[in-house]
Amino acid sequence: MTPIFRRKAPRTPQDRLVTLIRKPGCHLCDDAQAVVEKVCGELGVPWEGKDITEDPRLHDQYWEQIPVVLVDGEQHTFWRVNEERLRKALA
């Protein structure tokens, strides 16, 4: 009997989504956005920004960690975004 091992189909960059959770006036958030814009732009991955001051749920969940980066809805990092690590997560 052959074991069933299924490989996940490779995702295209357009199937991915990076979310940057931030707040206005946050210099770490500005730094994180620069990295997210660069990496996502180079890889063709869409990204979105969310402001914790406009979403009580995000505020309650992440206010001590911002900026927070989610990759495909799962927390990838917080405070400082490492370009190489983000690139590897999206590869």
UniProtKB/TrEMBL annotation:
Highest taxon of source: Bacteria
InterPro entries (UniProt xref): Glutaredoxin-like (IPR008554), Glutaredoxin-like_YDR286C (IPR052565), Thioredoxin-like_sf (IPR036249)
Name assigned to this protein: Redoxin
Species: Streptomyces lincolnensis
